[in-house]
Amino acid sequence: MAALGDQSEEQAMAAQPKPQNRPISNIVIVVAMQTEALPIVNRFQLTEDPDTPFPQGVPWVRYQGTYKDLNISLIWPGKDPTLGVDSVGTISSALVTYAAIQALQPDLIINAGTAGGFKAKGASIGDVFIVSDCAFHDRRIPIPVFDLYGVGLRKAFVAPNLVKELNLKVGKLSTGDSLDMTQQDESSIIANDATVKDMEA
Amino acid sequence: MAALGDQSEEQAMAAQPKPQNRPISNIVIVVAMQTEALPIVNRFQLTEDPDTPFPQGVPWVRYQGTYKDLNISLIWPGKDPTLGVDSVGTISSALVTYAAIQALQPDLIINAGTAGGFKAKGASIGDVFIVSDCAFHDRRIPIPVFDLYGVGLRKAFVAPNLVKELNLKVGKLSTGDSLDMTQQDESSIIANDATVKDMEA
Ranges for the Nucleoside phosphorylase domain (chains A, B) (predicted)? Predict the structure, then answer.
C-alpha cells in the first residue's frame, strides 16, 4: 500500500531462491491492494480463479495465467469482509504469502506494489525500485537479540540481470503497519538505511 | 510476550465460537514464549509432537495431550532459527494460529500468556484476565474506514461461566509488535479502552 512520503515509488521484492538448478517456472506475485493488482492482472491477462486453493471463507483472491513459459499467480488478500477495504498490512501479507507457498510451491515470490520513497536517499516519483534488503521499523523490542529479531532484517533475492536489463534502482526497504510515520518510526527507518517504505514487505 | 507496564497480567482470549451444537473437544492454545508455555505443558502433562502437522522447516512446536475428554494442543511458534529467541509478535502468532486452524480444526482457540496491565484501569500484578475485546494500537492508517481496519477491533468469545467459576477479571486488550510504548501507542491504547497490553493477540 502506498505510504506517505514526498515521493511515490514502486518496489518489487523477490524473496525465494529457486530450490533446484532448473528454470523458474512458477511465480507468485503478492499485492496488497486491488488498485495495485489490476494493472498487473490486465498486463498479463490473468483471470480470477473461481476455485482458489485457499480455505473456504477467506477473502483471498488468486488471479492466474501464463506468460511465455511462466505460470503466474497474483495473490491479493482481498477486502476486509466487514469493512470492505483492502486487507493491507504485514499480517495479511504474511498469511497469504504462507498460504500461497503451501498451495502453489512457487519458485519465485514477488512482493510488488506502490511505496513511499525518500528523496534524500535518491528516490523520485515514478521510480521503480528492486529491494535489496527488507526490515521492520515498528517492532521495537529493546532487549538484546530480541531487538534484532524485531528489526527482522532479510536480504532479498539478488537479481542483477533484471536490474541491468530494466535499469532499475536498487534500495533497502523498511516496512510497518502504519501509513503515517512517528518520530520513533523515522529513527528506525534511518537506522534501517531505507530508501523505500511500505506496509507489507 | 510480557509487555512493559507498571503491572504484569495474564490474559486468555477465546477467539473461536464452536461451530456446532456439541461439546468443545478440540482445544488449541497459542502461546508466544517457551517460558509462558512450559507451565501449561507441565500442568496438563503435554508432550512434544515429534511429527507436527506443520510444514517441514518451520520452527513451530506442538505439545499435545488430553485432559478429561478434551484434546489439547499447545502451539508455540518456536525460536527464530537465526537468532535463537522466541518468535514473538503478531505475525508469528497469526501464522501459527492460521496453520493450527487448518491442521487441527479446533473447537476453541485460547491465546494465553503474560501481558502488561494498567493500574489506572484496575489491573494488579498477578491478576488473571479474560479478554473481552481485542484491538491494535500500532496500525495507524488515517484514512476513513482504513483507520477502523487498522484498529481491527474484535470481540472475544464470551465465557461468563468461566469468569464466574474462576473469579477472573474481564478487560479489553490492546496489541502491538513493540515492547515499549510510544506516545502514539499510548493514545491508541487509551482510545482502545484497554486494561491489558500484549504483543500477540
Answer: 27-201
Q: Which residues of B touch A90 (CB under 8 A)?
A: 90-91
Minimum CA–CA partner of A179 in chain B: B141
Q: What residue numbers bound the domain in which B38 lies?
A: 25-106
Give the Cβ contact number of residue A55 at 10 Å.
12
Q: What are the tens digits of pLDDT across the range A23-56?
A: 999 999 999 999 999 999 999 999 999 999 999 9
- Shortest CA gap B171–chain A (Å): 24
A91 touches chain B (CB under 8 A): yes
Q: B136 to chain A: nearest residue by CA?
A: A177
Residue B19's pLDDT band (cuts 50, 70, 90): low
Q: How many domains does chain B have?
A: 2
Domain boundary among the residues B47, B75, B106 is at: B106
Inter-chain CB proximity B146 and A179 less than 8 Å: yes
For residue A142, is it within any domain?
yes
Q: Where are the alpha helices (DSSP H) in A105-178?
A: 146-151, 160-166
| Model confidence band, residue B201 (pLDDT cutoffs 50, 70, 90) | confident
Contact B150, A89 (CB under 8 A): yes
Domain boundary among the residues A55, A80, A106 is at A106
